[in-house]
Amino acid sequence: MIEIDLTRVLCRVEELAATGCREFSLGGGDWPVRGFIVRSGIAVHAYLNRCAHQALPLNMLPDRFLTHDGSLILCTAHGALFEKSTGYCVSGPCMRASLVRVPVQVAAGCVMLAEDVDVAALAARFA
């Protein structure tokens, strides 16, 4: 049986639709690290919820990060479009920039922070 560190669980895989996404917060206080998980086929990727253009949140509504057809990540503030599997900007004011990836792993049906992710260090990068 796989032992799960519940403090590192971001969501259950079943909570993601085939091309869906889900927000998460890490840490406490007034400024937790905010990010989102996106599913691309069977792969799962996570990014900080900050546009590469002006560091604003990508979404205006909860768990809404994708274009209408679900093929790309959309920044609702600037219209930038990002690849789901890489976070690379393919259109918009931050062309060729990328979203900040949050390393995750899938185990026992859960999407979890990778073992080597230091949440405090991640938060400090954007304080």
Give a written overview of the molecule.
Helices cover 5% and strands 32% of the residues. It is mainly β and 127 residues long. The strands form three sheets. A three-stranded antiparallel β-sheet has the order 1-9-8, with no helix packed on it. It has a three-stranded antiparallel β-sheet with strand order 2-3-4. The model has no long low-confidence stretch (mean pLDDT 88).
Terminal residue distance? 38 Å
Strand order of the largest sheet: 1-9-8
Task: Give the percentage of residues in beta strands.
Answer: 25-35%
Largest beta-sheet details: 3 strands, antiparallel
Average residue pLDDT:
88
The CATH topology is: Rieske Iron-sulfur Protein
Note the total helix count: 1
Taken together, the total number of domains comes to 1
State the CATH class: Mainly Beta
Cα radius of gyration in angstroms: 14 Å
List how many beta strands DSSP finds: 9
Level-2 CATH architecture = 3-layer Sandwich
Share of helical residues: under 10%
Instruction: Catalogue the unreliable spans.
Output: none
